[in-house]
Amino acid sequence: MISPEALLFALFGGILPALLWLIFWLREDRLHPEPRRFILYVFLTGMLAVPIVLPLEEITQRYVAGNLMFVIWAFIEEGMKLGAAYVVVLRRREVDEPIDAVMYMITAALGFAALENTLFLLDPLAHGNILVGIINGNLRFLGATLLHVLSSGTVGLFIALSFYRNARLRHRALFIGLILAVFLHALFNFFILYNADGKVLIVFAGVWVGIILLLLFFEKIKQIKRPQFIYLRKK
Q: What crossing angle do the helices spanning 144-161 and 98-126 adopt, rounded to 10°?
């Protein structure tokens, strides 16, 4: 039986770090902020994706093993985060500039990470292992949460880079971004779960390097302007 205190601490430890990261990214886009209601909807929908993902991953684990399992898990999670953002806002006209796609994908990722982190914290806290819960929370704040941001942000970058292109190029860019996100996610899972040497911090450092690159691209994306077409009148 999970006590109310354990549930409360798990929710606090899972959701608060994700919200702190969300505030950070919102500040990066403060000059042209997205409607707060859509940020909230995407965040919540990202959370709701977790109960769908978990049974799918459990089914996968029954029939698939090894590296292929990591790839399928990553594909399920990245696909669901993309689906969360798409269903709520990516297909709407409110997405009117390239950076919007990156921002909403990151928001979906943080919503997903918030509930996922809560579930990871719930088990040790329910058994009174507060220290284990704190360690898990800190590690996920530095590692897994940012991995979700990096992978989903990568999808958002490819959507943004092709924002003003034709439909064929946009679909191709989305596919490439999703494949790259799945690769990054699967690679992270592989090194974390099969890290025999205990070099977790090295893996986390790789994620942080990726986040720095994402920030640099984020700034570049903000500078993309709508193409100005000049039509020459016939004389």
A: 160
